[in-house]
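Feature request, filed as a ticket because there's no other form

It would be nice if the structure record came with a short human-readable summary line next to the tokens. Right now we just get the raw output. Example of a typical job, pasted below so the devs can see what we mean:
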Amino acid sequence: MKKKTENNRFQGKDRRTFPKAGSLGGGASPSTHVGISAQSEPKTAKKKFVEKIDIFCHILPRKYNEVLLKKAKSCYYLKTSGSKPALTDLDIRFRAMDKYEGLRQVLTLGAPPIEYVVSPKDAVELARMANDEMAELVNKYPDRFVAAVANLPMNDINASLRETERAIKELKFKGIQIASSINGKPLDSPEFLGIYEKMAQYDLPIWLHPTRDNNIPDYPDEGFSKYALFVAFGWPYETTLAMARLVFGGIMEKYPNIKFITHHCGAMLPFFSKRVVLSQAALQAVQAGEVVKLTKPPLEYFKRFYGDTVLGGNTPALMCGYAFFGVDNLLFASDYPYPGGAEKGDVALGEVIESVNLMNITKEEKAKIFSKNTRRILSLP
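Raw output as currently delivered:
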């Protein structure tokens, strides 16, 4: 195998052609990726594959990551990112993608949320840097990356509003990504209303990523979360809690067309949706003025969220999400390259694809989940 150079990373070779099924094995040389470009293929050579658009996978652009590591405070996220080389190495990413026909990605920034680890001033600089690099990647590799999602310096809301406008109008991004809470503040806090209003006007989605560090203990008399439970169960809880605050805090009521894409297929919500109905009696006992008066039953707002397929390849769990959200609100995503780590990231990606293929639904419904729904909500050609 040829020794990698710096040019093999984000300045790597432009591999824009999807290989034929089975043409690339795990030990294939990077040179096997180079072929006739999609633009120069004969018109009679039609690809026969099911298009797959991964709407919630992650990347750490190289220049951004170098600056981040110098300026960020220590946290769990930085420790785990170092063990996922595909976050920064395009060669690894492209080899994994080449194993699955028709696979393309929407780029979202990997952890940590920048407002959690740097000052507002540094967050503004880093957000702009990351967004510029992702825009370059989409422009350079259009047959790999169909779109990118803006990262925002959410510890400076005015700067976040400006960066949202720049990313969508100038960089042609297809949405923004925010954390399930912003440095401990819930998403229905009044200071975030400007973000929601702008995204409702653009009619583009907000990617909602769970956040919870191991310094939040599972029990009051402990100093930190043990056994990585803050990730395994804390993150799905954080997503569910954020969704609930967006509903009961009146955000979904105030902005009828706003779109949120939730990781892990809506987290706890599909399985525990009946508890939303059963708990309504308890809402009568809360303090006056705490709950916004909703014009519809709460479940109708919850069903407006979009759920992705990041469930570890668990088809029965996907069917639960399908039963709750309906096929039009399910979106294919893999969380690449976090599941599986450096050794099995491509395997974990395949397991998510297979979990959708194994769903007891029609071929057309699977096509919606794999790509058509994403094309619709992102207004992709």
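Something like this underneath would help us a lot:
Residues 120-140 form the longest helix (21 residues).
The CA atoms of residues 76 and 183 lie 15 Å apart.
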